[in-house]
Design goal:
Helix content of chain A: 25-40%
Pfam families (chains A, B): cNMP_binding, HTH_Crp_2
Largest interface: A-B, 53 and 52 residues
Oligomer: homodimer
Protein name (chains A, B): Crp/Fnr family transcriptional regulator
Largest sheet of chain A: 4 strands, antiparallel
Distance between the termini of chain A: 39 Å
CATH architecture of the largest domain in chain A: Sandwich
Strand content of chain A: 15-25%
Keywords (chains A, B): DNA-binding, Transcription, Transcription regulation
Mean pLDDT of chain A: 83
Low-confidence stretches of chain A: 1-9
Order of helices and strands of chain A: HEEEEEEEEHHHEEHHEEH
Number of helices of chain A: 7
GO molecular function (chains A, B): DNA binding; DNA-binding transcription factor activity
Domain HTH crp-type (chains A, B): 161-231
Chain lengths: 246, 246
DNA sequence: GCATAAATACGTATTTATACTTAACAAATT
DNA sequence: AATTTGTTAAGTATAAATACGTATTTATGC
């Protein structure tokens, strides 16, 4: 345990203060600690079990989350409860888009897809930090601009790709986002979750996976998916992505 | 003509300096003029005729545009040249998402859909302004966060709505964005453009419009579309939008 | 370790939605 | 008047969703 100069606060093991946090992808860690010293007060750590929902669509907004450790899916629920996964998030990423703005309610839901530790910053604290630190606000802006880029890219994809292409696109996205561990994609998702991201049904995903397995492009052991020929997959959707690879 | 204290520069009529600009929705106008005085130097005004493309997908990024006057469509071109309109922009809005960042190339294209005047800010000027003015950066961030929200909402729509619903959704979006003038939507779009925004084909749009006309929900006189029963339209897609109305 | 439930992996047939094609005609533009 | 663009319609092809069934594998509780 590191000794901070001031009082040691009561903390669970997972409740790491910003000053000792290892997560240098975190915009807060990157920017705020360079100037002020007392940032430990700002945040609260929250632990989520796999499957636990920590943002509910329509609930009042009161802050913003960072993923300290773990993985999260961000979604919107449509008619008849069909869920559209708008993105996944891993360590260092921000959840709760407008947690500091004028929006009254969350327009997305978020569920931990494995055991996850979140850092929570309240609206007011964050707003103050952003307005007093131009670099921090700038980095936040860049984060959103990037996400916007990706999202608009996805709008195009979904409206122009076939189911097969969308499933492949999702596989490549997961590969980029979470990478590979021991040959398998380093995240465990159900077929339903692949479907919810690709904007199709579970059955279609299973069918496409079967075809891809037959074609030796991927292989699977239960929920663990391995990509055997990433270039082969990329080729199939390359015509859709002239300029962007994100 | 207002008299600025310093030298009067050579300017075309449309090339309005920030100091006399009437566009108080503009983030630059709103934030920067309050502090610095010499902003007229920062920007260049560019005039576009209807139909003129001023951002080409894949071209090198060197700055960012504001719409001073007029209307613009922002799109991505997919396979076989099919174009997906990701959004429309009107006075005060920003075009060219990452015009100040590290991105090398524009990932979107932009075309003026009527005669338009743009203000152009170079990458470096803008970056400097953002990093020295937290409120400006904050406002930019909010703009992108909003756009992200809308875009993710659209991802959901496209993957869960029927063609009819998507066309209605587009009509309502246009209504919110551009409003009504003399009973008609205050923008002239082709059926193709409605289709490109709704992620469908021109013929489908025409078919849906026909049906909506029969049902007295809309009426049309050529390209001018009037919404007769906005609540009726909203009802059809209300199940998809529990929480968000943007 | 075993029983049971749940998820996964197919197959196939039906229905529906959407896309594509063509053609004829109207309207607007030059 | 000629040409382009927009509109409407109808028919066909295709893609996708839906609804089955059923074996197999994988979790989970006891």
């Amino acid at each position: 345990m590191p000794t901070t100069s001031s009082v040691i606060k009561k903390r669970a093991a997972f409740d790491v203060g910003c000053e000792v946090c290892e997560n240098y992808n975190c915009l807060i860690k990157k920017n705020l600690l360079l100037t002020a010293g007392s940032d430990a007060l700002l945040k609260r750590s929250i632990r989520c079990k796999k499957g636990q929902q920590f943002i509910i669509e329509g609930a009042p907004v009161n802050g913003l989350f960072f993923v300290l450790k773990g993985k999260v899916k961000v979604f919107r629920t449509g008619i008849n409860g069909k869920e559209q996964i708008v993105r996944f998030a891993k360590e260092g990423e921000i959840i709760g888009h407008r947690g500091f703005g004028t929006e009254e309610y969350y327009s997305i839901g978020a569920i931990a897809i494995e055991n996850t530790v979140l850092c929570y910053f309240s609206k007011s604290v964050l707003q103050e930090a952003l307005l007093s630190n131009a670099k921090l606000a700038y980095d936040f802006m860049m984060f959103y601009a990037d996400e916007l880029n990706r999202s608009e890219s996805k709008v195009k994809s979904i409206s122009q790709m076939t189911v097969r292409e969308r499933v492949i696109d999702t596989l490549l996205y997961i590969h980029r986002k979470f990478g590979v561990n021991k040959g398998y994609l380093d995240v465990v998702l159900s077929r339903k979750e692949y479907a919810d991201h690709a904007g199709t049904t579970e059955e279609q995903v299973i069918r496409v996976f079967s075809a891809l397995k037959t074609e030796k492009l991927i292989s699977a052991s239960g929920k663990k998916i391995a990509i055997n020929d990433i270039q082969g997959l990329k080729n199939e959707i390359s015509e859709h992505n002239f300029y962007l690879d994100s």
